[in-house]
Write a structure and sequence with these properties.
Blueprint lengths: L11 H9 L18 H11 L7 E7 L4 E9 L5 E8 L6 H14 L4 E7 L5 H6 L3 E11 L13 E2 L5 H11 L2 H7 L3 H7 L9 E7 L2 E11 L2 E8 L6 H10 L7 E7 L3 H9 L3 E12 L4 H16 L1
Parallel strand pairs: 3-4, 9-10
Antiparallel strand pairs: 1-2, 2-3, 4-11, 5-10, 5-11, 6-7, 7-8, 8-9
Amino acid sequence: MSHTGRARVFHLPALLAILAGAGRNEAVGWLEPPGAVDQQRILTRFGRDQLPLSTRSALAVSHDGVKPRALAGGRARAGSAVWEVDILIAPEPAAAAAALDQLAITATDCGARRITMRLAMDSPALEAARSAGYMPYAAETLFAASSVARSTGPRLDFRVAGSADAHGLFMLYNRAVPQEVRAREAITLEEWSATLNPIGVRHPAQFVVESEGEIVGWLRSAQRGSAVTFDVLVDPFEDDLAVRAVDGACALLGPGHSLRFFVPTYMQSMERRLEARGFFAAGEFALLSRQLAVPIAELARAQVAEKAAWVS
């Protein structure tokens, strides 16, 4: 497999050969339905990645010396520190490891410090991803509903989130998410900020809830077709916040729309509230990440900036 230091790692015939036998996309996006393969989008990506200054996305193919075996694609989130694998097509799952490894090398050359991905728990590519250095750090359940039981209780008073809320949201993230997950997902404020903009969502709607001047709840939503996808993060020390956050999110559901929530297993109270509102578990997923090489000087600058953010 060749590597030129940027995104040009293979030729069009190899891509077409992979797409000809594509069964499903193993990489699951926040907004994309599991298994969807958008061949036109991949071909458009290929053309864009051939530009000399392309450093925001890349595609990589593994082969056995003759025949292409797997395709992996990734894109930078906000900034360039965090990339996400959004394409993994592997008719032969064992071949996925080489493509994922090549993608990580290219992402590192483009300035990435971390690369993440989401796979179904029963994905045949899961073991290959692990062998390529993508380690599982959290599990989550996709809950879905086409109609929702309404609550007559009080809902949270959401307001639109603004840029001034970044520090307060990062503090909420550190209170609500276990340390072992944060260590693999987002350590610095820069990395965490990148996670707020999922791949394929240009400007998701974001809302916050405050209590005594502190952000205690966050809601993100985006719509594709008739499906609305939500994320919710609530302060673990606020007992009734989970149920009120679910009710607030459900209140945004319009006629003819379905709802989807990706809920991490460490938010068990949220799972119970969703089931009580008529949601059902539609899939189990693993979140994986690979830490990439970072120059010492760059890491030191990030740590200094992080300390400044905490004391501000």
